[in-house]
C-alpha cells in the first residue's frame, strides 16, 4: 500500500508534463499557421498607411531637453532609414517633409538637411511634381537664411534652382525666373569662397536673360577675388565679350589697394581670406551693416569704391 502512492504521484506529474507539452506544441502550431497571414496583412497595411510617431515640431523641440544636436542626428538617421525602406518597397514617402520639419525645429542650421533635402523630395518612388520642386526650393532658401555665410549651402541652392529644378517645372516664365535667381545665388556662393569657375555659368545665364549689368558686376568681383591664373583668363575673356574689361581692372585695383595698404605683409590670398578692414568704432553693432565703409565682404567694398 505504501509503494502505490509514490507511483500514482509520479504518474500524475508525468501526465501534467505531457499535457503542458501538448498545449505548447498546439500553441506553436497555431502561431505557425496564423503568423504568415497576419504578417502579410500587416505588411499590406504598412505599405498603404505609414504610422508617423513624431510629435509636432514645437513640442519635439521641448522634448529634446536641450540635447538638440543628438536629437537632430537621431531624426536624420530615422529619416534616411525610412527613405531607404520606401525605395526598397517602391512606395511613396509623403511624410518626408514632416521629418525634415522636425529636424529643423530641433536644429534650424542642420547643414546635412540642406545638402540632401532636394534629393529626398524629388528623387523618390512615385516621381516628382512642380509642387515638390517648390517645397525643395523653400527649404534651400531657408538654408541660406540659417547659414548666410556658408558658400556650400549657397552653391547647392543656386545649382538646384538654376539647373535641376527647371526640369520639374512647366511654366516657361517661372523657369526663366528660377534660372536668374539661381545665377544670383551662384554669384553669392563665389563671393563667399566657392570655386570662381561657377562665375562663368552664372554670367552665361544672366547674359541670356538680358541681365548684362548684373553679369558684368558679378564677373568683375570674381575676377578681383580669384588668384588662379587660368580662371582669371577665362573670366577676362568673358568680360571682353561683354566689353567690360576696364570695370574688371577697377575692381581688381580696389582689392589690391586694400591689400597693399593694410595687409602687405601677407599674400593676396590671405588678404582675401581676412576680408576688408572695418573701423571698430564706426562699424559696431548690427545697425552699421548698411553704413558706408562698413562692408563685411569684398563684394561690398568693390561696389562702394568703384
From TrEMBL:
Report the PROSITE patterns cross-referenced here: PROKAR_LIPOPROTEIN
Name the chain's protein. Answer: Uncharacterized protein
Organism, scientific name? Labilithrix luteola
